[in-house]
Amino acid sequence: MKPIHPAKRFLRHITSHPWQVRRYFSETALQHIEQAIADSERRHAGEVRVVIESGLPLSAIMQRLSPRQRAIQLFGQLNIWDTEHNNGVLIYLMLADRDVEIVADRGIHRHVGDRGWQHICRQMEEMFRSGQFEQGVTHGITAIGQHLADYFPPEAIPRNELSNHVLVL
């Protein structure tokens, strides 16, 4: 991601509001993403969570939180790290910074690594650049789901430890 001037970033964030997410993700698109999460989780024992944030809260802007730092913060706040097999994965979209971050718990991260997650992020960002927002997210869910299926096959008694609801901030 190309660095932007701090004042320009500040303006982007303070003028961003959650309702602006709807320009890129309709209610139907959010429902399709939630269904993609549910479909993916039937094929593995992992957990996927999607958070779309229009802009950072003022306190986070003042701290100069990067999208990566914010994603890690949300990973903890949403208890994505607290799954039975340490295989929770967060897809985080920061619209004001035009950034995608994937944060994965240690159980799956040790198999995929930073390069694997970055590859998925870049694919998603490429789709976003061409206006394919819903498809970009569902592609990310599918790619992450394949990694989870490789290392965490479905359990005999499936459980859903994390909400499949797309969190819009």
TrEMBL record:
Pfam family for this entry, one: TPM_phosphatase
Domain called TPM: residue spans: 24-146
UniProt-listed PANTHER family: BLL7265 PROTEIN, UPF0603 PROTEIN YGCG
Protein name: TLP18.3, Psb32 and MOLO-1 founding protein of phosphatase
Organism, as annotated: Methylophilus rhizosphaerae
